[in-house]
Design goal:
This protein has one domain: Alpha-Beta Barrel (TIM Barrel), CATH 3.20.20.70. The chain is built from eleven helices and twelve strands. The strands form two sheets. Strands 1-4-5-8-9-10-11-12 form an eight-stranded parallel beta barrel, surrounded by eight helices. α7 crosses α8. The protein starts with 18 loop residues before the first helix and ends with a helix. The structure holds ligand PBG.
């Protein structure tokens, strides 16, 4: 039986009755300042290579990436996570090219920061784009991904990126102890102002497939389960978050986003640093595929997706939809 005796005096629908009221009581808002657009950089000239599984995303060569950054800036997106697409000839077991002086990625970082000093650039620190094995860490003769031997390699990459002018490094490798190790390496070279956005709770997810296609960086053998986290675990994310914060991370990241909203919330409650969420390639691919089929409508689906990641507690969202969302806001006068 209904407990209500009529007339009803409590009516939640009153707060939903008009747009002007709904806009007033809205709890979560998303500003373009909170969005980071990931970009794929390829060596060469005049390249804008489409990525089949990520419609609307491309591998850009340096000059064309500058034009893309310009288009993003026009709609208020000025933060970018840049990933290198490395040719097979430049891959080896030790990811040497990741910190080689002639590295096209480092050169591009330098150019972007020269032309757009106010743009924020987040660099990727992990071995996989440069590794013949396609793993984020060093692979030994038995096929193990060895933790401590990986750290000095990551440190060289981080310092090289700092020298090129990166604002934040993004260690996406999930090795133990790397935040502290990288912090020390940066500080030792005088880069005390280069921040660390740590991929803190990075899960061994099926949703990275399109990214690995874009970078041609899939592991040659095995999988990433000995370093990336088990999707079944939540408490372990809090352990990782506590460690990264104590080790000196400036921003903690949860990745992927949509199936991990509970993790975003939990990390947000536990920690005192900003929390980022990475809405990853597979999440983007699913959405775009459904839109292409006419099964979902892009604008409301994007708005709902990003707003809900924000509602879960993300202060920052890395998403391939950053530019598209900012454009939508513009076209609605937002
Ligand atoms: C690799 C890295 C991956 C992503 C970001 N950095 C893939 C992986 O761990 O295999 C995935 C991003 C995405 O799917 O959008 N260090």
């Amino acid at each position: 039986m209904i407990a209500y005796s009529f007339p009803m005096h409590i009516r939640p629908r009153r707060n939903r009755q008009s747009e002007v009221i709904r806009n007033m009581v809205r709890e979560s808002r998303l500003h373009t300042d909170q969005l980071v657009q990931p970009l794929f950089l390829v060596d060469g000239r005049d390249l804008q290579e489409p990525i089949a599984s990520m419609p609307g995303q491309f591998r850009w060569s340096r000059e064309l990436m500058l034009e893309e950054i310009d288009r993003c800036l026009e709609v208020g997106i000025s933060r970018f996570a840049v990933f290198p697409v490395v040719g097979e000839v430049n891959k080896d077991k030790k990811a040497t090219y990741g910190h080689a002086p002639g590295n096209f990625y480092l050169k591009a970082i330098r150019t972007i920061k020269e032309i757009y000093p106010d743009v924020l650039l987040i660099g990727d620190v992990a071995m996989d784009p440069y590794s013949k094995d396609g793993h984020d860490g060093l692979v030994d003769a038995e096929g193990n991904i060895v933790n401590d031997e990986t750290l000095p390699i990551l440190a060289k990459m981080a310092v090289a990126q700092a020298q090129a002018g990166i604002d934040l490094i993004g260690p996406s490798d999930m090795m133990d102890g790397r935040v502290r190790y990288l912090r020390d390496a940066l500080d030792e070279k005088g880069f005390t102002q280069v921040g660390i956005m740590s991929y803190t709770a990075k899960y061994a997810s099926a949703f990275y497939g399109p990214f690995r296609e874009a970078l041609d960086s899939a592991p040659k053998s095995g999988n990433k389960k000995t370093y990336q986290m088990d999707p079944a675990n939540a408490r372990e994310a809090l352990r990782e978050a506590a460690l990264d914060e104590a080790e000196g991370a400036d921003i903690l990241m949860v990745k992927p986003a949509l199936a991990y909203l509970d993790i975003i919330r939990a990390v947000k409650e536990q920690s005192r640093v900003p929390v980022a969420a990475y809405h990853v390639s597979g999440e983007y691919a699913m959405l775009m595929a459904a839109v292409k089929e006419g099964w979902l409508e892009l604008e409301p689906a994007v708005t709902e997706t990003l707003t809900c990641i924000r509602r879960a507690g993300a202060d920052i969202i890395l998403t391939y939809l950053a530019k598209a969302y900012a454009r939508m806001l513009r076209s609605h006068g937002g």
